[in-house]
Specification:
The chain is α/β, with parallel strands linked by helices. Helices cover about 50% and strands about 20% of the residues. The protein has ten helices and ten strands. The strands form three sheets. Strands 3-4-2-5-9 form a five-stranded parallel β-sheet, with helices on both faces. A three-stranded antiparallel β-sheet has the order 7-6-8. It has a two-stranded parallel sheet with strand order 1-10. Strand 6 and strand 7 form a beta hairpin. The longest helix has 15 residues. The chain binds adenosine monophosphate. The site of adenosine monophosphate has 15 residues, from helix 2 and helix 3.
């Protein structure tokens, strides 16, 4: 049996759009007291705030393309800079290209951290597209949360809380297709990269979110309290 890892636990979550990354990230963060760093969420916040970064990246997100590596590397460094060294992180959405993955090794070394595992959520393309085309975000009722138009219970939860359903611009069908293509071309090669590093753990992302979260939790390395 391998010895438990000393905290803090640092984890990367990779998956195609529609694999449920943010939902699973939420569960892992809650159960293992990790800090969530979601690059997609940060970019959307910048766009909403009409900041310089937001205006620079909006055209990429609108088309389902990836934002430039140099900008993402800086954004990641800024996130690690403000992170309490005692706290572990769950990185949702970075790295997404081989260039980012190679740079990330150096960034981790600069902050005296190591990566403990890379969880790869795996879901078939047609299921990913089905999930995204029916996804809406429930806004205006506390922390925004995703719902699916086929999931009556989640739609009702939003309605009862007085929220409104908003469709993400990049969940439009043509943008979704492009995001899936970009995942296969630019992000999927990371699986081999992290497999070679002995860090990859495959997670079947089909089924109910709670079940997928259980599988992901079970795949996390043990940590020393
Ligand atoms: P997500 O919420 O993770 O699906 O990210 C939404 C969008 O943000 C992606 O489709 C990309 O355009 C952009 N994005 C997020 N993370 C990265 C990254 N690490 N590199 C490049 N673009 C990213």
């Amino acid at each position: 049996m391998t010895a438990p890892i000393k905290q803090p636990l640092n984890i990367v979550l990779i998956g195609p759009p529609g694999a449920g990354k943010s939902t699973i990230a939420e569960a892992l963060v809650r159960e293992r007291q990790l800090v969530s760093i979601s690059t997609g969420q940060r970019l959307r916040a910048e766009i909403k705030a009409h900041s310089l970064i937001g205006r620079a990246v909006a055209p990429y997100l609108d088309k389902g393309e990836l934002a430039p590596d140099s900008l993402m590397d800086r954004l990641l460094r800024a996130s690690l800079e403000t992170l309490d060294p005692e706290q572990g992180f769950l990185l949702d959405g970075y790295p997404r290209t081989l260039h980012q993955a190679r740079g990330f090794d150096g960034t981790l070394a600069d902050y005296g951290r190591m990566l403990h595992a890379v969880l790869a959520l795996e879901v078939a393309d047609d299921e990913a597209i089905r999930r995204l085309s029916g996804r809406r975000i429930c806004e205006g009722a506390g922390e925004p949360f995703p719902v699916h138009i086929d999931d009556l219970a989640s739609m009702l939860r939003c309605q009862e809380r007085g929220g409104r359903l908003v469709e993400r611009d990049d969940d439009q069908p043509n943008v979704v297709r492009q995001r899936v293509i970009v995942y296969h071309e630019q992000t999927r090669p990371l699986l081999d990269f992290y497999e070679s590093a002995g860090l990859l753990r495959h997670i079947n992302a089909h089924g109910a979110p709670a079940e997928v979260a259980r599988r992901a939790l079970a795949a996390l390395p043990a940590v020393q309290a």
